[in-house]
């Protein structure tokens, strides 16, 4: 029987974070973060390194005690035995025993979650299959490729069939082929109705995998919604035009600023409502004596949203 | 270029506290320990404890006992070390039992008729006048006592020795004239007076030695008396290294994030430490077993009759060193720190705890300091089992200390490891 909220019979949400605050000395890691993860949803936490994503995940797991606010997992307080059993945590580090084989690692973590006997064997086989490591089951972790280690790291996090899975940048340092394989693994979990909280600083991952995205910066959630909601909220119907000018770093930059553009690395970014605005822009440049080298039209994406909201690149 | 490489190496060393500790602190610490043990003996040399059983109660025997008291010996005539010691005097049997139990390395029994035989050697013969009951496990103490016994005989009992010599001479070459006898007796009287005034002819003496019968009361029939000592001494030292390496796996798991993941499961920190301790204890016991089996197979250690005592001491020692491993790992933050600190602590513990050289060689203060180490208690326990053939129940002091120390170390380790629980 699913857990319910205190208010009534409404099923408890997989994860509820309310007003979470955490400081490490002078550093504010989390500054009043609130968000919810719905059933069967994949919620992305998108933000640059140091934004507070990992601290938020560790608070949800119960490994970090917040200074303010609280977290519940399916109605249970974070860190409680029930919450720990409901959660699967895939940490950013390769948290494995390097001298054990793939199977032995999964067996160890399965036992730590209370699995025994046939249940354990079934779970290990399922996870090896899911991670496409069945043929490498007897190989020691130390001998696996980076991508295989990542997949095993993920498999160890779901060995106990959790209903909620937290993934902390599971594709760090992985080649594109292995990354695709990992995406497929996550999509398979989502297809089973498992709730996933996914942190990344790769926009493409968030756009591909996540139903909703929370943009995190300086320990705060600065925007939350679907990809389209975020883009529309930041840009409306506007698109981005990048114009490369002959003297883009010189007088042309001043001219661009005067027309609302943002000079950047020799090019200038403009936002336009309609396609016809592009022609007007180019004519104005010509009238001002600036030679246009190249023009491109970009539909805004999450990267643009982040830049729009913070004035910084996502990967700075 | 060469200087640049050297500069980089120097900067790296300066930033590596563990390497600095091993480079500068460890050698100085070791030098200090060895210097204190072997260089500064002087006044700090321990007074060798010796039990003296005076069955004769003659002037000669009492003079001998008093003479021994004046030497660098701790003469015990009654059980108990208090002053005045309570209870009755030691009997010969009690003295032998005390040597066997390791309370003292040697006992002297002055038998009845000692004084008479000393005065009239011809009458009773010079047979085994004195008995020296010794523990050959201590190769130093009994030798020193035997030497001092002869010295005291010469310096504290010159009157008896001359009397004995003159009687022997008279027997061999005929009687003295009245005048000679008078001068002889006057001389002997003068020596007695000087002895009673406490200034008995130091540095004087003759060539006549007391007859002493030396008997080993411990380890008789053992093929290699020091094998069990070194099996325990070396074994415990390496157990400590193993325990610290095993404890270090905790730090590996912290660094890799595995500990986080484990503590995110059903496993609590207490269970984690318990599991590590169980493994460490079992591994240490296995190591000890291998070492003692090797000693049995190759060096003839009488392991089989002592299996019970070995199991009790082995498990107690293994538990204590396991807890030590947990503690030293929880004190450190990185593997590098652990490597440096454990090397320093283990080598110091092993040197003052008797793993490198027997504690009876050390100054008294250092012998007492050695009791703060696990090595000393473990070695004492194993010595009781294999050397003194002590029954298992007699191991209670060592077992109690090792288990108690292990529990205390574990409690501190659990407290320090609390920082891994949550941040």
Briefly say what this structure is.
Chain A has 11 helices and 14 strands. Chain A is α/β, with parallel strands linked by helices and about 325 residues long.
Task: Determine the fraction of residues in helical runs of chain A and give it as a percent range.
Answer: 25-40%
Shape of chain A: elongated
Shape of chain B: elongated
**Uncertain segments of chain B:** 123-128, 198-208
Q: Describe the strand arrangement of the main beta sheet of chain B, using strand numbers.
A: 2-1-3-4-5
How are the strands of the largest sheet of chain A arranged?
A: 6-7-8-3-9-10
Fraction in beta strands of chain A: 25-35%
Q: In angstroms, what is the radius of gyration of chain A?
A: 23 Å
Distance between the termini of chain A: 46 Å
Q: Assembly state here?
A: heterodimer
Low-confidence stretches of chain A: none
| Helix-strand category of chain A | alpha/beta
Describe this structure in words.
The complex is a heterodimer of chains A (316) and B (423). Chain A is an alpha/beta fold. Chain A is 36% helix and 27% strand. Chain A has helices at residues 53-61, 81-86, 102-112, 117-130, 146-157, 176-191, 203-209, 227-235, 251-258, 276-287, 302-310, and strands at 15-24, 27-37, 42-46, 68-73, 76-77, 87-90, 164-168, 195-200, 212-217, 220-225, 239-245, 262-264, 267-272, 292-298. A six-stranded mixed beta sheet of chain A has the order 6-7-8-3-9-10, with helices on both faces. Chain A has a four-stranded antiparallel beta sheet with strand order 2-1-4-5. Chain A has a four-stranded antiparallel beta sheet with strand order 12-13-11-14, covered by helices on one side. In chain A, a hairpin with a 2-residue loop joins strand 4 (68-73) and strand 5 (76-77). The longest helix of chain A has 16 residues, at 176-191. The two termini of chain A are 46 Å apart. Chain B is built from 17 helices and five strands. Chain B has helices spanning 2-15, 17-39, 59-69, 92-100, 114-119, 121-124, 141-156, 158-173, 178-196, 227-256, 258-263, 269-299, 307-331, 335-352, 364-370, 374-386, 396-421; strands at residues 48-54, 73-76, 106-110, 130-134, 212-216. The model of chain B is unreliable at 123-128 and 198-208 (pLDDT under 50). Classes of the chains: A alpha/beta (316), B alpha/beta (423). The interface between A and B is medium-sized, with 27 and 13 residues.
């Amino acid at each position: 029987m699913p857990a319910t909220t205190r208010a009534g019979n409404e099923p408890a949400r997989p994860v509820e974070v309310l007003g979470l605050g955490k400081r490490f000395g002078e550093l504010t890691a989390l500054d009043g973060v609130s968000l919810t993860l719905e059933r069967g949803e994949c919620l992305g936490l998108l933000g640059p390194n140091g934004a507070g994503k990992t601290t938020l995940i560790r608070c949800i797991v119960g490994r970090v005690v917040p200074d303010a606010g609280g977290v519940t997992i399916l109605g249970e307080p974070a860190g409680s035995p029930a919450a720990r059993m409901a959660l699967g945590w895939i940490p950013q580090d390769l948290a494995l025993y390097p001298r054990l084989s793939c199977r032995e690692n999964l067996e160890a973590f399965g036992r730590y979650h209370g699995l025994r006997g046939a249940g354990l064997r079934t779970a290990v086989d399922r996870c090896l299959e899911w991670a496409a490591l069945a043929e490498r089951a007897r190989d020691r972790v130390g001998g696996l490729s980076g991508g295989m280690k990542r997949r095993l790291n993920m498999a160890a996090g779901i060995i106990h069939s959790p209903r909620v899975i937290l993934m902390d940048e599971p594709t760090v340092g992985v080649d594109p082929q292995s990354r695709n394989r990992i995406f497929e693994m996550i999509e398979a979990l989502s297809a089973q109705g498992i709730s996933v909280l996914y942190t990344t600083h790769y926009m493409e991952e968030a756009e591909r995998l996540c139903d909703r995205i929370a943009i995190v910066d300086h320990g705060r959630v600065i925007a939350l919604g679907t990809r389209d909601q975020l883009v529309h909220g930041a840009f409306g119907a506007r698109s981005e035009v990048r114009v490369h000018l002959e003297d883009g770093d010189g007088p042309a930059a001043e001219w661009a600023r005067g027309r609302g553009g943002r000079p950047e690395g020799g090019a200038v970014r403009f936002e336009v409502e309609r396609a016809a605005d592009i022609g007007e822009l180019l004519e104005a440049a010509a009238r001002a004596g600036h030679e246009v080298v190249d023009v491109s039209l970009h539909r805004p994406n999450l990267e643009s949203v982040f830049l729009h909201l913070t004035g910084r690149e996502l990967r700075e | 270029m060469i200087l640049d490489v050297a500069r980089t190496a120097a900067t790296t060393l300066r930033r590596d506290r563990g390497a600095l500790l091993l480079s500068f602190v460890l050698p100085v610490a070791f030098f200090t320990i060895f210097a204190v043990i072997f260089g500064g003996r002087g006044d700090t040399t321990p007074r060798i404890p010796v039990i003296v059983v005076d069955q004769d109660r003659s002037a000669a025997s009492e003079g001998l006992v008093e003479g021994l008291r004046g030497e660098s010996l701790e003469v015990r005539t009654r059980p108990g070390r208090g002053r005045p010691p309570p209870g009755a005097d030691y009997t010969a049997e009690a003295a032998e039992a005390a040597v066997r139990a390791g309370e003292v390395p040697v006992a002297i029994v002055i038998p009845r008729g000692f004084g008479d035989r000393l005065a009239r050697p011809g009458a009773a013969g010079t047979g085994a006048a004195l008995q020296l009951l010794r523990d050959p496990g201590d190769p130093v103490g009994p030798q020193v006592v035997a030497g001092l016994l002869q010295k005291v005989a010469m310096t504290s009992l010159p009157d008896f020795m001359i009397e004995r010599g003159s009687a022997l001479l008279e027997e061999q070459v005929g009687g003295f004239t009245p005048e000679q006898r008078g001068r002889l007796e006057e001389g002997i009287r003068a020596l007695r007076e000087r002895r009673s005034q406490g200034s008995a002819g130091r540095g004087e003496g003759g060539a006549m030695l007391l007859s002493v019968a030396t008997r080993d009361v411990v380890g008789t029939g053992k093929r290699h008396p020091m094998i069990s000592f070194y099996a325990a001494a070396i074994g415990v030292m390496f157990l400590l290294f193993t325990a610290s390496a095993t404890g270090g796996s905790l730090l590996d798991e912290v660094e890799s994030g595995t500990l986080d993941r484990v503590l995110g499961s059903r496993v609590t920190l207490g269970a984690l430490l318990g599991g590590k301790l169980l493994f460490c204890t079992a591994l240490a016991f296995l190591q000890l077993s291998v070492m003692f089996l090797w000693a049995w197979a190759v060096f003839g250690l009488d392991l089989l009759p002592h299996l019970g005592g070995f199991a009790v001491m082995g498990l107690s020692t293994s538990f204590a060193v396991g807890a030590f491993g947990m503690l030293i790992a929880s004190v450190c933050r990185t593997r590098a720190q652990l490597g440096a600190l454990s090397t320093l602590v283990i080598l110091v513990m092993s040197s003052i705890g008797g793993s490198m050289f027997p504690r009876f060689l050390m100054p008294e203060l250092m012998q007492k300091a050695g009791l703060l180490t696990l090595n000393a208690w473990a070695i004492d326990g194993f010595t009781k089992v294999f050397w003194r053939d002590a029954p298992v129940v007699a191991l209670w002091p060592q077992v109690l200390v090792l288990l108690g120390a292990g529990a205390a170390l574990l409690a501190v380790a659990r407290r320090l490891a609390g920082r891994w629980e949550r941040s």
